[in-house]
Prior knowledge:
With about 70 residues, this protein is an all-alpha fold. The chain has one domain. About 55% of the residues lie in helices and about 0% in strands. It has three helices and no strands. The chain has helices at about 10-30, 35-45, 60-70. The two termini are about 30 Å apart.
Amino acid sequence: MEPRRLAKTASRSVLCVMNEFAYLADVYDKLDGESDLLALSMRLAETPCGPLDKRHISPDRELTALVASGTD
């Protein structure tokens, strides 16, 4: 496993999304017994996110749009 670094954020929306993802990951684990991190991340990517509400709503749709546009 690679080392990770934690840092504070001043963004409430980032904090809210991270808390919601942690909660949902726990719920999905209890409901489905989902322990595969790749499958869990794919499922969480479908979760609507407040910061993306004026664009593509969820991380998976945002990534799809970014790849389709061909920009970085």
